[in-house]
Amino acid sequence: MKINVTKEERCLNVGVLGCGIICQAAHLIGSTKARNVHLYAICDVAEDLLHKMAAIYDPDKIYTDYA
Fold first, then answer.
1. pTM reported for the whole predicted model
2. DSSP, residue by residue, 7-59
3. Which of 40, 39, 49, 46 lies closest to 64, judged by CA?
């Protein structure tokens, strides 16, 4: 599901810890729809879920460890 939103020139880079159901229903979609937010990174210990969300939302970075 690609949402075409024209991003503003200056955006807040956001990183999300955990890709569970709340993140999927709110944070990831919200960052995609917001004009002033850029999804920079996502992190989850479940690699399969992490890669699935990365394929959908296309963050710049993905991590399996928050540190």
1. 0.85
2. PPSS-EEEEEE--SHHIIIIIHHHHHH-TTEEEEEEE-S-HHHHHHHHHHH--
3. 46
Strands 37-43 and 61-63 come out as parallel
Cβ-contact 64, 45 below 8 angstroms: yes
Percentage with pLDDT > 90 across the chain:
84
Q: Which pLDDT tens digit goes with each residue over 53-64?
A: 999 999 999 999
Read off the tokens for 37: 């937010």
- The CA distance from 64 to 29, in Å, is 21
Q: How far apart are the first and last CA of the chain?
A: 30
- Pick from 17, 65, 64: which is nearest to 39 by CA? 17
At position 59, the amino acid (one-letter code) is P
